[in-house]
Amino acid sequence: MSLPVFERISGYFHLARDVHLQGWGEPFLHPELLTMIRIAKAKGCQVSLTTNGGLLSPDRSETLIKEDLDIIAVSLAGASKGTHEAIRRGSHFDTLLANLKTLSGLKAKLRSKTPKLVFSFLMTKTNIEELADAVSLARELGVNELVANNLDYSPTEVQDDLKVFSCHSTDSRLKRVVERAERKAREIKLPFRRYPLEGEEVIMCELNPLQIVFFSHDGCVSPCVYLNLPKSGSIPRIFCGSYHEIPRVCFGSVAGKDFMEIWNSPEYTEFRKVYQNRLDVFEKTYGHMGPLITDWHELERAERMLKSGLSQNPLPEGCLTCYKAYGI
Fold it and tell me: For the chain, give me the number of helices (H) and strands (E)?
């Protein structure tokens, strides 16, 4: 993304709480990243990014601390050198660990609580056995939280076969492995969040299109990165064993239009309306109930009402075959 495009977007940062400077790529390769961080921080936003950690040099780490970057999420694909480097091709495990130790040490030296360090552990069939070890590694390196993510986008069957979650029923062995990691995290008091191992259609996608906007490098405005991958042509996707191709979704570009004009366009408004209707159905169904539901007949009736309401407000076409719309 060019700096002029970013500056056009930043004109609306007063409407934003969080700015995440990453789509799918390495943010430290961008020559203007520091300038972008400063712009977003000056607008009062919480600023975060996701990195492979390879370019997190001591000088850069000290600069990020002094610039008050809020969160750094580091992609981790194993608790051992062999496993991590086999999945994150081109990554150097030892360098990653050394960089994180340095950053943690600098935070302590400068008495800074930021940036918060998060391990983003990509769960696959080839590394899931190391999840509990990754919890211990996080504690050792001064990482503040571990998030166990699913392989939620697969362009090929080979990649899709690596996922640990199921569209139908959870593998009991994998469930035990994840529970072991959860217990380890509780023991050492490390915040731990993991995604489900079984999908179920959710009311609102985690990438809530009512509140979240994705800008691609060319300024195109989309609900999320999954609908606007950095490629030409349609987007290939494996979903529950079936191959799909979906069109790239771009409601307009800030390079040529005002963002609010794009946001309020009929097409974008109609897309969001589906999710607003789904949210309204949920609130109408359960809004009158207290936090504890003791009447199971009422609960069953509410669940039937919810399913009926959702069937009348189906997901947009591009979301129907996206794992994120099923909570995983």
Answer: 12, 10
What tokens does 220 get?
């195109």
Q: What is the DSSP letter of 225?
A: G
**How many other CB atoms sit within 10 Å of the CB of residue 159?**
13
In sequence order, which residues have a C-beta less than 8 Å from that of residue 195 and are 6 or more positions away? 123, 148, 149, 150, 152, 165, 327, 328
Give the helix ranges, DSSP H, for the chain: 3-10, 33-42, 58-66, 81-87, 93-109, 131-141, 157-160, 172-187, 259-263, 266-286, 296-311, 317-320
Q: Rounded distance, CA 262 to CA 254, Å? A: 8
Q: Is residue 51 within 8 Å of residue 26, measured between CB atoms?
A: yes
Tell me which residue of 219, 256, 214, 260 sits closest to 2, measured CA to CA: 219
Is residue 57 within 8 Å of 95, Cβ to Cβ?
no
What is the H or E stretch that residue 221 is in?
Answer: strand 221-222
The conformation of residue 220, written as its DSSP 8-state character, comes to B
- Residue pair 192/181 in contact (Cβ under 8 Å)? The answer is yes
Cβ(18)–Cβ(45) below 8 Å: yes
Residue 118's closest CA among 179, 164, 71, 80?
A: 71
How far apart, in whole angstroms, are the C-alpha atoms of residue 182 and residue 150? 16
Pairing state between β 18-20 and 46-51:
parallel
Of 328, 149, 320, nearest in space to 244 by CA: 320
pLDDT digit string, tens, across residues 172-229: 899 999 999 999 999 999 999 999 999 888 888 899 999 999 999 999 999 999 999 9
The residues pairing with 145 across neighbouring beta strands, listed in sequence order, are 118
Which pair of structure tokens corresponds to residue 89?
A: 């091709």
Write out pLDDT tens, residues 273-289: 999 998 888 887 776 55
